[in-house]
């Protein structure tokens, strides 16, 4: 039996607006799910490219999150650091179906590897 | 109602059968007739017992601005003239693809050569108890409108579930019809799919001003009533009485027929670029289809689809390539427009214009010199212009600086150069609408010596109120002075042209109540601020409106949201309060138990005389707090911009040098001031004699006890730049020491800028200013103290206890866990 391509994580409403929840991945980095003021949902590894701050704990504004440790701004859609800072956090494809949040299984496995 | 074609038996043309007598179905037929009126024999089946009408105009019908006849698109004559057989009021219930027939509920069977499915959407009904009670209706067709009008005639209360386009139009209509309307919306902002937070806030204000009750973030638990609707119950327990409930939470493509017939169905009926389904004889169009992964809920895409469909039906294939949509809310007097993608993100630049006095918010989102989205509130005149630029993907780099002012402005003289446009303005052109200042007045004020934005604001008042003309004033400065312009006051952040003090003053002066309101009234240039201004605004509002302001958790730094200190490995440290540095066996035992139970790798005695438990995992925080609460301990706020510790020495009770009860005073000070939010962290210490074992002279507020009373010291700081306190004054009694302390804290709370410690604050405003307010003016001191105590009456709720009891509990736990091994097994 082949495993599905997408992992069902839960309802969109479980993620606070302008906030974040995480998916724990055994043996790897957590995945942070973000929901912006406009209701868009993004997924990134929960690890800042700077010194591995937990991005899920940062302040979400516009399409970016400010890392809680040293305030780098990370783009939610590409994972790239914005402004003067350089670095990139891997993104995880995410989609919404019928109010459920689904993340890409293959990328999640990679996070655990 | 049934019109039969003249002689079907003798008509040998191919038979096109259309299921759905709605907007897309009939439009497709019109497009086909325009291309080749004679090619097909046509039969249309419609579930509704009436001719084709303009569904989007149901809102004006409900509002009493139109009647049904006004919104008919094709009357009975049109069907007759074109030889179309209309079977209205008898829905199709099955498609037999092998036999190429459709069957209706009434039992009729009709053969087809080509079949067109245009069944539109079904309203989504949330599966809550009571959803089937009489009085619960959707908003989709004329029957729904008739039901609402009947209910409105009886008067009473209505609840509209869903604050999107449909719900708000229903609410507007019902309230014009005299009902008392409450809108219940799950999301924090209205129309969140079309509007950003700023525009959603303006909309909410406008609707509330018209007497509607708007509940956002409200989740429906059920609909109550015995034999008919009596009210709506929310998950937080609120019960809203209602004799009518309108469900407008969304629509689902109507795909049941197609699915039962075995056609490929995803979210909608899947079609190719020519609107052909997985069966080449069957086409589909309108809201029921899914094209290239997209489904639509607006009419504009239908027109494009119908063109491609008709082209295909006459063998002149063109192909549909998807649509970009825009939305306008049809509520008279409220202008809202949105188009494209406004979620921001990489490479996106936001251009924002806010005009508080006219209630306007405009935001255009540009990426790679192309407009990708627009949100307009209050002035939507340029909506179609932006939408056109967006659809055509035109390069707007040449218009960039004037884009936000609209087509008239951008197309005017010197469009490429905003400086030239400002230079071209006549001397009597008004620059500042709030204070009625003309260009001539600003220029003469600059000529008389104003060399910075700040001095212009101070002298002729231009841009001193709402700030929306700041850019114009800056351009005038540059035009008049060239390089001699002095940079203005330091602004709060790049989202605003105002400094901290201006923002605070205006929050109080204009009695503002929320972050979106501040951003609108003070013309923020970003839609929802940044990580610098959001926490500052949250604090300023909290300070200005104790007990009234609803704290915005998402505008707080992680430590204040989690009520613990984040460490560099992502775990948290937990510091319970030990009043005045005192503890007892129960507390120590509870701490020891927590350390063992949650495997905390380290416990440390802090410089603030308490214990810090390190290495607690985020999901264990609520349990740790519950255990500490059980032993009587509360949060130490070691994480917050708030009172940290009150450090004490043992004082007169034990020490041979002690002059006063420094320990007792420290405990009382901490009991008075714990839990208050401040511009930055705040530390207090009390030493029992000038030997100063508690190091009171490097604290924000330090007391050194002497024989004759208490020396009060302020503005000390440890840290990188050590600053010794200034002596504020000496008082005789412990009571006075407490009063001065409360007054000082409140003055700091009200006047210091966010993230400014007491030391730089005092150096900025001067000790004399502080003495004048606290020492020299007893009335002022008492008023400050009273305001502090009022504020404290709302903030001395242990945040740990609230969360250990379950508040926000879910947010500490991961949303899901994923174990690859298990999954693969
Ligand atoms: C109150 C309201 C306001 C709106 N305002 C706007 C607006 O401002 N702007 C905008 O762009 N869009 C608006 N819309 C959306 C717009 O009306 C729809 O996008 C449009 O009507 C979709 O056309 P359609 O033909 O796909 O579906 P419909 O117009 O719904 O037509 C489908 C028809 O098929 C019939 N049908 C379904 N199943 C069967 C069956 N088995 N047998 C026979 N007949 C069947 C239905 O009864 C219906 O008459 C609004 C919608 C509503 C309800
Ligand atoms: C992110 C940065 C910082 C963190 C997480 C942090 C954390 C802490 C903690 C947990 C304590 C124990 C306090 C208590 O018992 O409540 C403490 C004490 C202290 N911190 Fe920091 N601190 C930080 C930055 C600073 C800075 C910038 C300064 C200097 C301005 C500073 C100066 C001090 C001093 C002087 C003490 C001892 C306090 C006392 O004796 O009362 N800290 N810090
Ligand atoms: S400050 Fe004075 S009273 Fe307090 S412990 Fe030190 S010597 Fe004793
Ligand atoms: S770890 Fe994220 S900014 Fe330093």
Molecular structure report:
The complex is a heterodimer of chains A (113) and B (825). Chain A has 113 residues and is mostly beta strands. Chain A has a single domain (6-112), classed as 3-layer Sandwich (Rieske Iron-sulfur Protein), CATH 2.102.10. Chain A is built from 1 helix and 9 strands. Chain A has one helix at residues 105-112; strands at 6-11, 19-25, 31-35, 41-45, 59-61, 64-66, 73-75, 94-97, 100-104. In chain A, the strands form 3 sheets. In chain A, strands 1-9-8 form a 3-stranded antiparallel β-sheet. The two termini of chain A are 22 Å apart. The mean pLDDT of chain A is 87. Chain B has 825 residues and is of the alpha/beta class. In chain B, the strands form 11 sheets. In chain B, strands 1-6-3-2-10-22 form a 6-stranded mixed β-sheet, with helices on one face. Chain B is elongated. Chain B starts with a strand and ends with a helix. In chain B, 46% of the residues are buried. Classes of the chains: A mainly beta (113), B alpha/beta (825). Chains A and B meet through β1, β2, β5 and α1 of A and α18, β40 and α27 of B. Bound molecules: flavin-adenine dinucleotide (FAD), protoporphyrin IX containing FE (HEM), iron/sulfur cluster and FE2/S2 (inorganic) cluster (FES). Iron/sulfur cluster is lined by residues 649-651, 655, 657-658, 662, 687-689, 691-693 of chain B.
Outline:
With 113 residues, chain A is mainly β.
Tell me the CATH architecture of chain A.
3-layer Sandwich
Q: How confident is the prediction overall: mean pLDDT of chain A?
A: 87
- Tell me the strand order in the biggest sheet of chain B: 1-6-3-2-10-22
The biggest beta sheet of chain A is recorded as: 3 strands, antiparallel
Uncertain segments of chain B are 1-7
Note the gap between the termini of chain B. 61 Å
CATH T-level fold name of the largest domain in chain B: FAD/NAD(P)-binding domain
SS summary, helix count of chain B: 27
Largest interface: A-B, 53 and 49 residues
Described by its quaternary structure, the protein is heterodimer
Instruction: Give the CA-based shape of chain B.
Output: elongated
**Mean pLDDT of chain B, rounded to whole units?**
88
- For the record, the CATH class of chain A is Mainly Beta
Q: Order of SSEs of chain A, N→C?
A: EEEEEEEEEH
